[in-house]
Specification:
It comes from Sunxiuqinia elliptica. This protein is α+β, with helices and mostly antiparallel strands. The protein has one domain: RNA polymerase II/Efflux pump adaptor protein, barrel-sandwich hybrid domain (OB fold (Dihydrolipoamide Acetyltransferase, E2P)), CATH 2.40.50.
């Protein structure tokens, strides 16, 4: 056939090029597998286990108090209250003890409930004044709802407010709440450096990663003395 030339690549350097291409095609998946296995599960999840201001859930429309409790006024005129996302990130898994019953009155800043973690506890104070309407009994059986969905299913009490406008005047809302939470995160890091050194025989326990980022649930393994310091400096 005129104009047609047959070249046997096995008789030329073409086979070398194919070998090189084949090598790289095999190398790419092998390298991906190697780098994936070289990371421990803990390292692979590190970014999701760090507490940063950007990771905190701070919905608009919710009022945050300095006690790290929140409140939201519903259309029916009743307000729900609960624990903010930052506090739950710091403590980790906690159980709740309801200290108020329906029909009882509560004042803003008054003891409302208690959260517990392996013999350690924190007192939570009410963000508003009012009359207790209902306690979220679901939290007794499913306390994890506070961490998984703190502003919907994880509410603690429903209260009929008696001084809503005055009570929420000093609370943080929307962008102000985000800025306040970021400042609290920084303040907590400073708090740890002091409290841990005071109460731990070996203050080298890791609660901060390289770069100063907080590991998820830093208070979970810390002693009751640190929890007491936290109570006095952050929740009262």
């Amino acid at each position: 056939m005129d104009g047609f030339t047959y070249t046997n690549i096995f008789a030329t350097k073409g086979i070398e090029y194919l070998a090189i291409i084949g090598f790289f095609l095999l190398l790419i998946p092998f390298w991906s597998l190697l780098t994936r296995k070289s990371k421990s599960p803990e390292q692979g999840q590190l970014s999701s286990r760090l507490i940063t201001s950007k990771a905190l859930r701070i919905p608009h429309g919710i009022f945050f108090s300095k006690f790290h409790s929140w409140t939201f006024l519903e259309r029916n005129g009743l307000a729900k209250v609960g624990l903010d996302d930052l506090l739950l990130h710091l403590t980790g898994e906690v159980n709740i003890t309801h200290l108020k019953q329906p029909g009882q009155k509560v004042k803003k800043g008054e003891l409302l409930t208690q959260i517990n973690h392996h013999g350690k506890s924190l007192h939570i104070f009410s963000p508003i004044s009012g009359v207790i309407q209902q306690a979220n009994e679901l939290l007794t059986e499913e306390p994890e709802l506070m961490r998984e969905d703190p502003y919907r299913q994880g509410w603690i009490y429903q209260i009929k407010p008696t001084a809503w406008k005055a009570d929420t005047n000093t609370h943080f809302l929307a962008e102000d709440a985000s800025k306040w939470a970021a400042q609290e995160l920084i303040r907590f890091k400073d708090f740890l450096s002091i409290s841990v050194n005071q109460h731990l025989p070996d203050p080298s326990q890791v609660v901060l990663q390289d770069g100063g980022e907080l590991v998820e649930h830093p208070m979970a393994e810390l002693p009751p003395e640190v929890w007491q310091d936290f109570q006095e400096q952050f929740l009262t």
